[in-house]
Amino acid sequence: GQNIDQPTEMTATEGAIVQINCTYQTSGFNGLFWYQQHAGEAPTFLSYNVLDGLEEKGRFSSFLSRSKGYSYLLLKELQMKDSASYLCAGFNNAGNMLTFGGGTRLMVKP
Amino acid sequence: DAGITQSPRHKVTETGTPVTLRCHQTENHRYMYWYRQDPGHGLRLIHYSYGVKDTDKGEVSDGYSVSRSKTEDFLLTLESATSSQTSVYFCAIKSGSYNEQFFGPGTRLTVL
Fold first, then answer.
1. Do residues A37 and A50 lie in contact, with contact meaning Cβ atoms separated by under 8 Å?
2. B68-102: per-residue pLDDT in tens?
3. Which residues of A touch B3 (CB under 8 A)?
């Protein structure tokens, strides 16, 4: 199968920086998405990487290395409201399906 | 907000009964998806549609069927619900600058 792996849980302190990693099989995916999901709510789109490198969007940045099958989401200046699950998802080559990792539950503490 | 609604939002049913969940969109998107989300498994694709009457299976399609007779509606049917189908079901459409998927609010289904 086309596995996508990410840590199950992470804890960080308000105001700090946290990096959430995602690894995947390099064949079969063309692009990587990150979604945020608060408890009891639907996932919401955060970022998309199709080329190698860093994409920055305010406090959130996402990085992709296609040759290494590796991505990360970087959250800066953490706020309590950033406590949520973060889902990594790979776009298949046909561009019509996403495969999700299990999600990383981030807890931000004061 | 991509104009996606799901109904019902909550349902409790008994094993062996048929259940149909509805996803409705108002913006004429071609692609629609049904996922289930369970602890420890993340989001898993059940079925998707790429147009009226055009559907295909996803990763966990056993025990589920879908229909799309109109662009705006994508129905997910559990012919005979089982307790293993207790889950949160999300509908999604594909849109946006990156063809990202936008999700509906979800349906929490409990099969007793």
1. no
2. 999 999 999 999 999 999 999 999 999 888 889 99
3. none
